[in-house]
Amino acid sequence: MLPVLKYASLTTLLAISSSALATTYPVTLTDLEGQQITLKKEPQRIVLQDGRDILALALLDRDNPFHRLVAWNNLLKKSDSATWSLMNKKWPESGKIIDMGYSDKGEVNLESVVAQHPDLMIAQLRSRPSLVQTGVLDKMKQLDVPVLFIDTFEKPVTDTPASITTLGVALNREAEAKAYTDFYLRHYQAIIDKTRSIKPQPLVFVEAKAGLGGLESCCFTHAHVGWGAMVEAVGAKNIGSELLPGATGDVSLEKVIAMKPDTYIISGAQWATNTNAAVPFGYNVTQAQVNAAFNNMKQRPGFAQVSAVSNGHFYGIYHHFYNHPYNIVGLEYLAKFIYPQQFTSLDPNQTWKEIVTQFTQVPLGQGILGAQAPSE
Prior knowledge:
alpha/beta, about 40% helix, five-stranded parallel beta sheet, 16 strands
């Protein structure tokens, strides 16, 4: 079932009257973990647990999304260096912000955080267990520093616009938040208007990070989170949701072949590892590079036996959309890949350009964010 009711309730949740687009402090708000937090004043010294959320701040603090940051985990530098390079060139002072240097699991260097006297920590909901286990939440409570949880992974379609709205209230950027969430919901509605009545639901397999561990590795995927949740949100059936006992995991290629997916989608990026054979989606990538990586992917033993691959329904997408405030672009790519006849005129790349140019000051780089594998 498509989340039609969820969409309706989310629209109600995000409906903000034009007369209430400025935050009055102190303000009490409910974050995506369901906790109520009170901000005594407008936050000016922010710690960002997951540095990729700088792209959410770019929607709100448009002139300079870094100007409130005092410490962060610069995951962009590790996982998407081309995006980091663009942003660092635009805002060079960003390179001087303390980088806690951890993964996305929730580790935080408490000493570096405390030394910066923060007045707010923004964290991803998926990191909460680690933040509890390592004592970070207790320490922040002792210091009277609110921790505001947002989410773009566990429930990407409902929680992403809700997260932007919550941040808009917290940072006194409600007008900017509403402009983006209105755009997001309008584009999502256009997808489900066309897909909600399609039966039977197409069967889709998303191989996340395909080729990261080399061409021999296969097949990591998501269940009801990340890519799996996004596939379900556009009205298709996600193989990972049917097979995985947990949120993410591996499915054997033999099992995928037996399931006979209608569409096979890989996610890729420009990871800097010795084993990386992924399709290098992102900035500064050419079509020739993408096609060459696709063709290498097709040479994996047994891969041609996957029905979607042999039938030409083989696609690739920028990996980082699985956990991204601009994931509406990823949803549009999924819709176009899964329902090619229904979305012949849909242009997700144009949607990306509109987001970047209309709602941020992030430089508009050139690259490839999604593509169909070449036929030969």
